[in-house]
């Protein structure tokens, strides 16, 4: 073999070549970086639920300096474009509620819950303790509201009260719907600059299994997204403050009073006297009415006293009970309701149900609440049930 000058190269035969044809030393390419395997952390809670946490891909790997610089430059460029896009859609950003202020400028992300002193003035009557005692339906189930940086935001009641349970002594889903509706309102009030009227547009609860025997039931608000007058609330239903038994999604309309009426404050604080009903089934007072059910007028489960109208959670509980009975008392999966008009407590309330799907494994039931001579639909609900119990749960938490 000849080199660049035409002479014979000394590297002949099987001897390894250490220089190229121009006499430059050859360097073997560096080995590829070794990435350690991603660890999967699995924890199991006392209830037997499995929670899996996945770390961010590549978070435990060391990158070469040049690659890190390139990545940093790339992400800085993307961040600049992202900020421009966020500016263009600033109306969709979240509003931060900061301690010591009525609220930060729209668009700043929420960093932490406000302290008690800042939040409490946002509620009618000046605090959560008095506010909940102005609503007969909440007083009937012994409900308590809370909103502070220490406790979080939500509502709870004691399951030692018979009205919060079924005739079998288990937590009642109907009573839980009153709790869920009110907790969503608590979350919305915590975002307001000043207290004002609101009404529930819709409510959905996903059940994560049968409600177990417990000492208390909480509905804790996770976050609230405000879009103008709309308040979108998401929360968790917890037994004994730790066991996840359901999820809440609700929509509220701020600045509106049910029925389009001018807001009238119910500023009379009621005596903390809970319902004497032996169970929530008895508190419903549902009687057979042809192919449906009839609830006679009553005052115990009122939500809006000036109308007077039933608490939205009570109406949801009545429709859920009727749907469950039509489904053959199968295992509940979810329940959702849309409120069309105030459900007046001074008029008879009729519940009509029908089967939308009746399969071997799943059933879907629709239920309507109707009132008046014209049988006007005031609320419409839909529920899904399974033939087999959905015991146990695997919770997967993904990084943001």
- Which strand order do you get reading across the main beta sheet? 3-4-6-7-8-5-13-16-15-14-10-9
Sheet having the most strands: 12 strands, antiparallel
Number of helices: 7
Uncertain segments are: 1-13, 38-72, 85-107
Report the CATH C-level class: Mainly Beta
Features:
Porin, three-stranded mixed β-sheet, disordered N terminus, 7 helices, alpha+beta, twelve-stranded antiparallel β-sheet, 30% strand, 400 residues
What would your notes on this structure say?
The protein has one domain (116-397): Beta Barrel (Porin), CATH 2.40.160. Residues 1-13, 38-72 and 85-107 have low confidence and may be disordered. It has helices spanning 65-88, 116-120, 128-132, 136-140, 173-189, 280-284, 312-326; strands at 41-44, 50-53, 144-148, 152-158, 198-207, 216-227, 230-239, 243-254, 286-289, 292-295, 302-304, 309-310, 331-339, 349-358, 362-371, 376-386, 394-397. With 400 residues, it is α+β, with helices and mostly antiparallel strands. The longest helix has 24 residues, at 65-88. The chain has a twelve-stranded antiparallel beta sheet with strand order 3-4-6-7-8-5-13-16-15-14-10-9. Helix 5 packs antiparallel against helix 7. It contains seven helices and 17 strands.
Summarize the structure.
The protein is an alpha+beta fold. Helices cover 19% and strands 30% of the residues. It has a single domain (116-397), classed as Acyl-CoA thioesterase, double hotdog domain (Porin), CATH 2.40.160.
